[in-house]
């Protein structure tokens, strides 16, 4: 079965990460899905940005948790990448779900709560996804094991994934014990034993962040369920090449 190709923060090699232009470009590049990161503003609005601080990807400084949504709307999240993307805003989760609802895309929403303890982020994000009737094609992922446990309240309705870059002896067992139905693993840690264990225990296995051609090809040949990539056009090319020999 072909691995599902998720555009990591959108087509983030070609457009500013976690912005609507990056998502739209990924869709045009025929990505199967979109991966994005969610955090909460001071007034509890879920917004899509990777870093806890806005400094790297905007024209300002400070933590997301200390900004109101109105204040974040004033920031430029595109100029850091290219002048062509000047004045690109930080999107909300609702912006993203509205855009994705009628597109044939899988979604992966990563909760960025391993450094900042956003209270009730699990419930808030789930309620948005549910309201847009997208639970059947959305995965919620997180590095935070406590958050995985909190998400178990929703696991009958939505896929929950443990994200990890830790070198566990039995990573599939760890995910299964937490109650996750998927494991998102740093690609350097993949082994044939892990792949076999995932299939045996019925745990979806996806790799991040896979960008180089050799790594893309290797990941496909391992037979994983999916991968996250900044270059969805290249991943699509190599997957097509390997499956149409």
Automatic annotation (TrEMBL):
Gene3D superfamilies: Phosphatidylinositol (PI) phosphodiesterase (3.20.20.190). Residues 3-239 form the GP-PDE domain. InterPro entries: GP_PDE_dom, PLC-like_Pdiesterase_TIM-brl. PANTHER family: GLYCEROPHOSPHODIESTER PHOSPHODIESTERASE, CYTOPLASMIC, GLYCEROPHOSPHORYL DIESTER PHOSPHODIESTERASE. This is Glycerophosphodiester phosphodiesterase.
